[in-house]
Amino acid sequence: MSSLSQKLAAALIGALALTGIAAPVYAQSKPVEIMNVSYDIGRELFIKINEAFIPMWKQKTGQDVTISQSHAGTGAQARSILEGLPADVVTFNQVIDVQVLADRGKLIPADWQKRLPNASSPYYSLPAFLVRKGNPKNVKDWDDLARDDVKSVFPNPKTSGNARYTYLAAYAYGLDKFKGDHGKTQDFVKKFLSNVPVFDTGGRASTTTFVDRNIGDVLITFEAEVNAAKKEYGDKGFEIVIPSQSLLAEFPVSVIDKNVDRKGTRAVAEAYLNFLYTEEAQEIIASFANRVQNPKVLEKHKAEYPSLKLVTVEDVFGGWEKANKEHFADGGILDKVFVKR
Amino acid sequence: MGTNLFYLTLIVLLPITALILKTTDAGLARFWEVITSPRALASFEVTIGAALLATAFSSVYGLLMAWILTRYRFPGRALLDALMDIPFALPTAVAGIALTALFAGNGWFGQYLEPAGFKVAYTLTGVAVAMAFTSVPFVVRTVQPVIEELRLEVEESAATLGAWQWQTFRRIIYPAIFPAHLAGCTMAFARSLGEFGAVIFIAGNLPFETEISALLIFIRLEEYDYPAAAAIAVVLLAVAFFTLLTTNAIQSWRLKRVVKD
Question: Residue A292: exposed, middle, or buried by beta-carbon count in 10 A (0-12, 13-18, 19+)?
Fold first, then answer.
């Protein structure tokens, strides 16, 4: 019943917009404010995106827009939105944390991923390695991380989306190496996890542990963060190692339908997300060492994207829902391999 | 009185009731399963063990600080007095990061401690250090006013009657301070049980080794397993409540004895 009336209302608004009756709303150009709720290490990127979007929107519609940014682990962010944080858009690094907004909160439709290109993921990244100057432990690939003499640093897969990709990437590598043998793969992943001296709760904290506390031989985090750390601490001579295989990490985005319809911000919120796919925005995104799809931008940054075998959660683990149930839920495979050494 | 009770209900009792109700969502069997799982038990051990260590330190150091601040006059005393409240004012995450920076292997303290065999950051000791940092003001601030109230004549009489300094302290001074000291230590302990921000940065968060219960609650929330998170929280709450209740009982028992004497 309510969904029917919602559809009717949407159709009515759509019809009004078509007939031009709603158009004067733009002309009045009442300032509008939207909130982008995002992942922990996306702050710098979205400051630049906002700087580009605001004048573009003003020129197009005459409307002033302010964009507030909120950055934290996306699990916590999703919970805040479920509990009432009035987010207009989410730009996350975890499909499941967006999905939960549909499953638990009914804030967005279940097929939200179909609304924008590339499964609503305007860019992607992958877990990559950062090693100390000269790569003294000669770390080349995932199996080096299961060696006794190599200590790796990455956040807690239970609290960090970033680390969930790292865990799944190692698992996928193991499945490949041991020809689908789950027992051997789990032994491998167990060894890999037991070589981690510190589990921080988020990606940035792990970077600090590796860089400032001087702990560990390898930092595993998104390629974008690996590049940022290398650049930021140029004097330390860190080196980037791209393993032979990794896992494609999507950065899904969505408008929060319930909130934008209530606040009347749908037009600007949708434009904001569409903007992420434009050449201008893709160039900004690529400059933060994220991988993009736009062919022109891709061509320009080709040298910065070493090629490797990229597998997806869909291919190897049968989708996020299944991976979540089998690996990350309480009592799942992660709990079995993530134990006392 | 009515207003007070209203506020107490609104901001203390209501959330606690909600918390306890949340655990019943999944039933008693599930509650028991959650709180007796090996990982939860290990986290209770880590949390309570480190909180006891921290409280032991705070009880001695806090008492000493309170004594120095009330009984001695020296340049910078007012500044030191104000500094005692810093752990209350500082965001705990900042405290955690600062302590980690100091005690990590390449930090100011860590670079000397680790070669000598004392590893602090990413161990249980580190957890206790963070807890002590955030809870020591409870001891200082509860004991301080009581020491200020102590009448010097009593100590002087004790001295003229031939008591040694140690005897004066043990027989005259400490019994007067004891209820406040106990209350301060209890609050410090209760606070340590729940400390999250300062601890997670220095703990290393290894399951079964340095994973505190508050982090396990956080992990269960990440899994959207609200009843399990509430179950672990209820155990922490029960420990804190039991401790407060016991110390209250000890205090009233002592008070009765003093009155009778």
Answer: buried
Q: Same topology for domains A31-123+250-302 and A127-247+308-337, yes or no?
A: yes
Residues B220, A330: C-beta atoms closer than 8 Å = yes
pLDDT on residue B155? 86
Between chain A and chain B, the number of residue pairs with CB atoms below 8 A apart is: 63
Residue ranges per structural domain of chain A: 31-123+250-302, 127-247+308-337
Residue B140 domain-assigned? yes
Task: Decide if A90 contacts A272 (C-beta within 8 A).
Answer: no
Answer whether B205 sits within 8 Å of A198, measured CB to CB: yes
Query: Which residues have CB under 8 Å from B150's CB, separation 6+?
Result: B173, B176, B177
| Chain A residues whose beta carbon lies within 8 Å of the beta carbon of residue B105 | 213-215
In a domain, B182, yes or no: yes
Q: Residue B104 and residue A339: Cβ atoms within 8 Å?
A: no
DSSP state at residue A326: I
CATH topology classification for A31-123+250-302: D-Maltodextrin-Binding Protein; domain 2 (3.40.190)
pLDDT exceeds cutoff 60 at A68: yes
Report yes or no: B106 at the A interface, CB cutoff 8 Å.
yes
Task: Give B259's pLDDT tier (boundaries 50, 70, 90).
Answer: low
**Can you tell me the ipTM of this complex?**
0.77
pLDDT band at A309 (very low <50, low <70, confident <90, very high): very high
Pairing of strands A218-222, A239-241: unpaired
The mean predicted confidence, pLDDT, of chain B is 90
CA-nearest residue to B42 within chain A is A340
Q: Is residue B12 assigned to a domain?
A: no
Q: How far is A237 from chain B (nearest CA, A)?
A: 18
The answer on pLDDT for A198 being more than 50 is yes
Q: Quick one: average pLDDT of A185-193?
A: 96
pLDDT(B254) > 90: no
Cβ contact B209–A212 (<8 Å): no
Contact B222 A76 (CB under 8 A): yes
Q: Report which DSSP code applies to A201.
A: S
* Cα Rg of chain A, angstroms: 21
B26 touches chain A (CB under 8 A): no
Instruction: Provide the CATH topology of domain A127-247+308-337.
Output: D-Maltodextrin-Binding Protein; domain 2 (3.40.190)
Q: DSSP assignment, residue A197?
A: S
How many angstroms away from the CA of B122 is the closest CA of chain A?
7
A70-73 CB contacts, 8 Å cutoff, 24+ apart: A70/A35, A70/A36, A70/A37, A70/A38, A71/A38, A71/A39, A71/A40, A71/A41, A71/A42, A71/A43, A71/A46, A72/A39, A72/A40, A72/A202, A73/A39, A73/A40, A73/A159, A73/A160, A73/A161, A73/A201, A73/A202, A73/B222
Cβ A200–B205 below 8 Å, yes or no? yes
Contacts of A104 in chain B (CB under 8 A): 224
